[in-house]
Amino acid sequence: MNKIIETALPLSEINDAAIREKAGKAGHPANLHMWWGRSPEASSLAALTAAMLDFSDETKKADMTLLAEVAFGDKDALETVRSRLDECDTLPTVWDPFAGFGGIPIAAGRLGLKAAANDLNPVAAMMTRAAIDIPARFASLRPVHPGAAERIVYTGAEGLAEDVRFYGEWMENRARARLANRYPQMENGETPFTWLWVRTVKCPNPACNCRIPLGSSYLLNKSKTSQHWAEPVFKEGRLHFEIHEGDCPDGKESNKIGSNGAKFRCPVCGEVTTDEYIKKMGAAHELGAEMMAVVTNTNGGKFFYMPDETQRAAAEIKMLEDVPPGSIPDNAHWFSPPGFGITEYADLFTSRQMQMLSTFSDLVREAQDMAVSAALAAGMSEEEDSLEEGGTGALAYGQAIGVYLSFVVDKMADYNSSMCSWRTAGANIRSTFGRQAIPMIWTFAEGNPFSNVSGNFKSMLKSVTESIECLDCKIPSVVFQDNAVTMEHPQNVLVCTELPYYRDIGYADLSGFFYIWLRRSLKDTYPKMFVPMVTPKDELSTVSTYYGASKDDAEEKYRSDMKTVCEKLYASSTVDYPALLFYCFRKNDLECIKDSSAGSNESAWEYMLESLISVGFVVTAVWPMRSEAVSEKADSTRVLIVARKGTDRESQITRRGFINALMRGLPDKIQKILSAHVDSEDRLLSCMGQGLEIFSKFQHVLNADGSEMCVHDALQMIYQECTNAIAQKDEIASGGDKDTKED
Q1: Cα–Cα distance between 393 and 376 in angstroms, integer?
Q2: What CA–CA distance (Å, rounded) separates 22 from 30?
Q3: What pLDDT shows up at residue 382?
């Protein structure tokens, strides 16, 4: 019997829920840790629900309402789904071999389904363990810390969250004491929350010999009620900055020349640096930095001061010898700092930031040991199995607290590197990862971890503990850290995963920024996971093209590995439920479909479909499940491919027979799509999915010359039929509107 997801969906509502989810809210699992391209929990909930429930014309309207409510996380709707699933004799395990830190295994748990999740990336695997594995082990436990409040009942992960909060506050107090001389107050008693810095370099003019400020912006604040700017001044051969209030005069905003390259004009002699010169000086470690301003936040107002000797001295410390090791990939697509001599992850941090983060990271281990002792004193089991070994006793519990505290340190690192820029509108710090890359920042902001402004330790701890409190703890799940291309997959499972997109985000490279701190905090807790100095680079993607490898070789490896994955997914899929495969449909993929030439140069989309069908899958639906709002600038659309194990596929059909089958079966299918809650921009792909079902039901579609029809040719026919049907529907609708207006 067809499942709901193979027939109809309230697609508009589901996409709306997924897009809204990205804005984030307190308590959402995504707030545990930063990740790129996270699968929306909203669409995962709706997709899994629709894949489990049978379709019925009689209950269609009610089911569409239910799915929309599930996507928005309505508690009553989720309870209704769980009740309906409880009536099933057996429920499948949801298998996500490319879990990342997505919503799929989390959504499965919320629906009462067991999940097995995997990711090669240790950062992603660690986050998934923290979201679905660890909470279930310690569900409904009372907090163990000294002085814990007496409560009769603790549900879910409330007790765990309370302990993380307690030991996090202990860490903050201990770090504040250890670093007191590094974060001094101003002479007027105010507490700095940011120090603004400008990188410097020796002027290339031998007659000048000053330090040129590489000031991409001297604007400090340009809110409607307060404007401040800084002016570089050279006195007695030394650079300092004077703070001015009011509008910045034209020409004083920056000494950077143009928008591209590192070209800066010397304020003293007028010499202009070249990009090559700055890179050469960077490679020789001759780039410096000068403190431009000290910013305080008092009674809701931002105030800007010239740095005094006390503030300068507090920041001028030697870099620690014991820094987290790891080289930044020499990959200009995602990292521009290595081009300027910033080649190690440790180089991304000022010496004060490095000391601060190292202090917090080392305190994670101290807090963890304290938590173990407290757990033993509270009567928890003395079993010696660690968290990595599946333990549930006092040792594992203390280590679990350490995991979440290490996430707080990671979130601190995101807001405390020398690649954090300054937001002049509102006067706040931007995080390192404002986008999926680390660009070179010339004017950077250094935050105070003990201040009262966002990005401090207290706010990061609050974000993590609120997420822990809301984690689902009912269903134990399994998390692996392995290579999905080579590993053994579980059998008879409901496959639901976000397949690696063609030339997608460089997760392996970008996550190295966080890996070095997780490794420092957790290498004794998870010794197997954190053996390598940096993250493994064998992820399934064509990112190798950015390392100078041949584009053809990189694409061939991607296609070969993806074909292997499709074979494994087919072998592991249950026959009772369809597989749910999220992928990426790009504008270029549509252009390839329109191209009348043969499909010898298949797009990534066509190759993906070819691989799925060739291993035996029948594509039963395609749904655009967006995680971003519709935009003309967007290059791609997130798409869900619904595929069944083709146990009853017909052997073969002629080209003419396929065309006839298409013309007979497609109109009714398209009519159902067009009458559902599907936005206009999503109709074409949704309708084409119905055509793919007809095509993939046959093992072979034979052309007149005996050759086998390729997916490219089939898609062209399906595209033509779908566009004609949509045009006719629109024509009828517009005619009806015209008649109504005339009446």
Answers
A1: 9
A2: 9
A3: 92
Provide the H-helix boundaries in 441-481: 457-469
Beta bridge partners of 494: 94
HSE-up of residue 310 (Cα within 13 Å, Cβ side):
13
- Cβ-contact 445, 422 below 8 angstroms: yes
Measured between alpha carbons, how far is 597 from 243 in angstroms, rounded to an integer? Answer: 64
Q: Quick one: tokens of 616?
A: 């035996």
Most confident stretch, 175-184, 537-546, 581-590? 175-184
Q: What are phi and psi of 281, to 5 degrees?
A: -65, -35
The pair of structure tokens assigned to 67 is: 């799915």
Residue 237: per-residue pLDDT: 78
Of 455, 446, 453, 450, nearest to 184 by C-alpha is 450
Which distant-in-sequence residues (6+ apart) come within 8 Å of 688 by Cβ? 622, 715, 718, 719, 722
Q: Using an 8 Å Cβ cutoff, are 401 and 160 in contact?
A: yes
**Contact, 114 vs 91, CB < 8 A?**
yes
For residue 117, give both structure tokens: 């999740």
Distance CA 440, CA 451 (A): 26
CA angle 490, 493, 499 (to 5 degrees): 85
pTM tops 0.85, yes or no: yes
Is residue 267 within 8 A of residue 255, CB to CB? The reply is yes
- The length of the chain in residues reads 743
Per-residue confidence (pLDDT) for residue 678, from 0 to 100: 83
Euclidean distance between CA atoms 541 and 494, whole angstroms: 24
pLDDT score at 601 = 62
User: Which residues share a beta bridge with 221?
Assistant: 228
Contact (Cβ atoms closer than 8 angstroms) between residue 6 and residue 642: yes
Tokens of 729: 């529907």
Q: Check whether 463 has a pLDDT greater than 90.
A: yes
Kind and range of the H or E element at 107? helix 104-110
Domain ranges across the chain: 1-185+351-416+455-577, 188-307+422-447
User: For 301-316, what is each residue's pLDDT tens digit?
Assistant: 899 999 999 999 999 9
**pLDDT tens, residue by residue, 527-563:** 999 998 888 877 776 555 555 667 788 888 888 999 9
Can you name the residues that pair with 272 across neighbouring β-strands?
A: 265
DSSP secondary-structure letter at 247? Answer: P
C-alpha distances in Å from residue 194, one per residue of 39, 218, 440, 457, 563: 34, 15, 19, 14, 51
Distance CA 226, CA 228 (A): 7
Q: How far is CA 400 from CA 367, 372, 407, 546, in A?
A: 11, 10, 11, 37
Bridge partners (DSSP) listed for residue 229: 219, 244
Q: For residues 33 and 21, give the distance between their C-alpha atoms in angstroms, rounded to a whole number.
A: 15
Q: Alpha-carbon distance 411 to 513, whole Å?
A: 11
Tokens for 699?
A: 């093992």
Token code pair at residue 365: 């281990």
- Comparing CA positions, the residue from 98, 97, 115 lying closest to residue 106 is 115
* The token pair that represents 210 in the structure block: 């000053």
**CA 319 → CA 134, 348, 349, 579, distances in Å?**
36, 12, 9, 52
For 350-412, the DSSP string reads -HHHHHHHHHHHHHHHHHHHHHHHHHHHTT-------TTTT--SHHHHHHHHHHHHHHHHHHH
What SS3 class is residue 633?
Answer: coil
Q: 308: which 2 tokens? A: 């005094």
Look-up of token digits 């992603």: 124
Angle between helices 457-469 and 394-414 (to 10 degrees): 130
